[in-house]
Amino acid sequence: MICYKYPRPSLTVDAVVFKQEGVNTYVLLIQRKNPPYQNKWALPGGFVDMDETLESAVSRELMEETGISDVEFQQLHAFSSLERDPRGRTVSVVFWGWLPNKKKPVAGDDAADARWFNLNNLPLLAFDHQEILQMAIGKL
């Protein structure tokens, strides 16, 4: 392993998954099981493992936390505000996509719950996920 004298940030991925039912648009959120922001709602996501790509990481995190797979993702944006994660310097690469069918999420891994929320009735979100969601909604 190579050691560097420079500190490095952590790298995470987050998934913004939408579905349409009639005239309503929904986004998939998880309720965090652990700190920080325990019991708060957030986008599915997590840390990138050393042996995976960003694309495989976002698919893995979505499956682990919601039981949902087969979403065709597009990269939305990299979020790098200095104070975005109270655990330390973290950069998140966010992906977004549509789920073509009505899969029911099943909470797993570090998610206490997983649900679809109407975009017109959203809870307060953890981290900077409100900002992330607003950018994704702008793509709709």
Helix content: 10-25%
Q: How many structurally independent domains?
A: 1
C-alpha geometry: globular
Task: Characterize the biggest β-sheet.
Answer: 7 strands, mixed
Strand share of the residues?
A: 35-45%
Overall CATH architecture: Alpha-Beta Complex
Number of strands: 7
Q: Distance N terminus to C terminus?
A: 43 Å
State the secondary-structure class. Answer: alpha+beta
Which CATH class is shown? Alpha Beta
**Oligomerization status of the protein chains:** single chain
Number of helices, counting only DSSP H or I runs of 4 residues or more? 2
The CATH superfamily is Nucleoside Triphosphate Pyrophosphohydrolase
> What is the C-alpha radius of gyration, as a whole number of Å?
15 Å
Low-confidence stretches: none
| Overall mean pLDDT | 94
* SSE string, helices as H and strands as E: EEEEHEEEH
Question: What do we call the CATH topology?
Answer: Nucleoside Triphosphate Pyrophosphohydrolase
Structure write-up:
- By secondary structure, this protein is of the alpha+beta class.
- The protein has a single domain, classed as Alpha-Beta Complex (Nucleoside Triphosphate Pyrophosphohydrolase).
- 17% of the residues lie in helices and 35% in strands.
- The protein has two helices and seven strands; from the N terminus they run ββββαβββα.
- Strands 1, 2, 3, 4, 5, 6 and 7 form a seven-stranded mixed sheet that branches.
- A hairpin with an 8-residue loop joins strand 2 and strand 3.
- The longest helix has 13 residues.
- The radius of gyration is 15 Å and the shape is globular.
